[in-house]
Amino acid sequence: MGLGFCYGFPLKRELLASALRGLSADCSLSDSDLARELGVGVKKARAVSVSLLYMGLRDGKTRSVTPLGALILERDPQFRQRNTELVLHYQLSSNKQASLWYWIVNEFVPQVPTFGRSELVQRYCEDNAVRSNLKNVNGDAKVFVSAYTDGGCLAATGYLRELDRGTFSIQECQMHPLLLAYAVYDQRERHQAASATVSIGSLIHSVESPGVIYRLSRGSVDEKIRRLESAGVLDVSTSAELDNVAYTFEGSALDLLQLYYESGEDS
Q: How far apart are CA 104 and CA 93, in angstroms?
């Protein structure tokens, strides 16, 4: 599991982007090679490399850049766009290997949308029977908070807001409908490739769902789905008093993300 995968180092967009460019040019780079490329120590280079892995930007076996990583390199090589941050937030939050990150977004936040970092750490240790590795838990919690605050690499998502010193509140992410569609189709590809439909309730409330990961309200999801229906990406139907959406787009989740980047729209 990915407890302590950052070794306490904050996620820096400049290092993440530089490392991805380096691995794109030469996927055989070792952590030592990457450290020299980035001008950091080997341990920090390893943390950056693992972060790229958990973000779905590089392959764990070949170290090569994934199709998602290649698309982001093409469209936003400096990781400066808000839409890129929203994609990276989704990738980390839906990856069980990034164990604390996954738990915070999918299990803790739906129950405790306003919290302190010490409360977060305590609950994680209680829920997961953690009696050691407290240093790693504290380190990951600090990295999580710093990523979304103080100009962190995911701050533009608007997901986390500091209410006062040490107290944080989860916010709904403002996003374009095509980013919702990307997450919906990505979840289908991961877990339900043969499915023709999915319930709107599942899109809002299920673990790893875009509703949970982006903290979307029912009204926000309904509005985005209506726009996606008009675009021919999803189709809404009602049966047995349940609202379902049918997958009507013939391409992949990555194709939808490509369309979003090409649109140049933000919301």
A: 8
Q: How far is residue 121's CA from residue 82's CA, in Å, rounded to a whole number?
A: 28
pLDDT digits (tens, 9 = 90+) for 193-203: 999 999 999 99
CA-based Rg of the chain, rounded to a whole angstrom?
19
The answer to whether residues 37 and 29 touch, using CB atoms and an 8 Å cutoff, is: yes
Whether 157 and 246 share a structural domain: no
Sheet order of strands, 242-247 included: 197-199, 242-247, 234-239
What type of residue is 23?
Answer: L
In a domain, 212, yes or no: yes
Cα gap 237→128, rounded to integer Å = 39
Judge whether 8 lies within some domain. Answer: no
Number of domains observed in the structure of the chain? 2
Q: What does pTM read for this prediction?
A: 0.94
Contact 234, 181 (CB under 8 A): yes
Write the CB contacts of 165 (distance below 8 Å, at least 6 apart in sequence): none
